[in-house]
Amino acid sequence: MLNFVARRVPAAIVTLVLASIAVFFLIKMLPGSPATTILGDQATPEAVRALEEKMGLADPLWQQYWDWARGLATGDLGRSYISGEPLVETFLRAGGATLELALGSLVVTVVCGFALGMAGATVRLHGIQSMLKAFNAIVFGVPEYVVGILLILAFAINVRLLPAGGREPLLEDPEIGIQYLLMPAIALGLHSAVVIARFLETALRTELDEEYVETAFAKGSSRRRMLWRHALPNALPSVITVLGLRVGHLLGGALIIEAIFAWPGLGQVLANAVIAHDYLIVQDLVVYFVVVFIAMQVATDLVHATLDPRVRLEGE
Q1: Mutual angle of helices 126-141 and 87-122, in 10-degree steps
Q2: Which residue has the higher pLDDT, 207 or 280?
Q3: CB 265 within 8 A of CB 90
Q4: Which of 137, 243, 232 is nearest to 192 (CA)?
Q5: Contact criterion met (CB below 8 Å) for 24 and 283
Q6: Distance (Å, rounded) from C-alpha 304 to C-alpha 165?
Q7: Per-residue pLDDT, 311
Q8: Half-sphere exposure of 243 (CA within 13 A, CB side)
């Protein structure tokens, strides 16, 4: 297992370095300057230039990248160009809200995805099968932000059952917090649930068509026992791999859903930073999501290798 992990760490580091370089130089191509935002549109070019030199924005690009990358590596994320607040404090304050939303949507993904996948693979009634396929196709084809808007129209405006936006920390007041969390978590997690359902249904159908299942049925084993004791464990590795990749999608998609539901997370921080040309925040956040995505991919590979020794042996 150690060899399996060691073979993936260098690739992950190289991917992270290349991604940081791409993020840095692409953001430098964006119009506007933090100095202009601070001084206002009426500031003279000389004043803007002087402030940029003071902020280090007039240094050579390679020097700016090196200082930024070294800060990331040592845990020094820098300070906001606009407010001067340490970015560690900004991210910790907003990161809890994003993490809460991501975990809530992950619960929706797992519960709904496994329920839909199991039903699609085991239910034999043609009418129910048609309904499941239609539901999966509709949800898969509708963007998450559209689902969010439809949920607001249905349950916040027409029925007035749930709040349309905002957040109450779940740990402080679970009863109120779940009401704020429910709609954004469903809007974010439902699309991933359908993806998981499709992979799980396909994997289960493949396993149930194997010869060992027919042999077990011939020996008197029940369908339920075969499903839970044999087919599902054998189908899990591929589904776990997809689920791990969807976690990165949930964190990325949370940025849009946060804007729709006025959720005070990293998505709001990123949107405000883009408007204010506070590009250091944008750089740090994008690299953060890259790190999370890479970490989830490595963790998924480890789980897959644990569940399926063949993958581990091939990797080693």
Answers
A1: 160
A2: 280
A3: no
A4: 243
A5: yes
A6: 38
A7: 53
A8: 25
Cα gap 89→79, rounded to integer Å: 9
| CB within 8 Å of 255: residues ≥ 6 apart | 266, 267, 270, 271
Tokens of 69: 């990358």
CA atoms of 184 and 177, how far apart (whole Å): 12
Hey, how many other C-beta atoms are within 10 angstroms of the C-beta on 54? 10
Distance, CA of 66 to CA of 24 (rounded, Å): 10
pLDDT tier for residue 62 given thresholds of 50, 70 and 90 = confident
> Which two structure tokens, joined as six digits, stand for 148?
């969010």
Rounded CA gap, 285 and 304, in Å? 28
What is the gyration radius of the CA atoms in the chain, in angstroms? 24
Q: Which amino acid is at 310?
A: R
DSSP-H helix ranges across 123-173: 126-141, 144-151
pTM for the model stands at 0.79
- Tokens 């809530």, located at residue: 104
**Residue range 73-116, pLDDT digits in tens:** 888 888 888 888 888 888 888 888 888 998 999 999 999 999 99
CA triple 114-115-121, angle to 5 deg: 85
Q: How many angstroms separate the CA atoms of 114 and 112, rounded?
A: 6
Q: By C-alpha distance, which of 195, 200, 159, 164 is closest to 180?
A: 164
Residues 253-283: tens digit of each pLDDT: 677 888 889 888 888 888 888 888 888 888 8
pLDDT tens for residues 65-80? 898 888 888 888 888 8
Candidates 32, 78, 119, 96; CA nearest to 254 is: 96
26, 45, 82, 176, 186 from 180: Cα distances, Å: 36, 46, 30, 7, 11
Tokens of 210: 């194997």
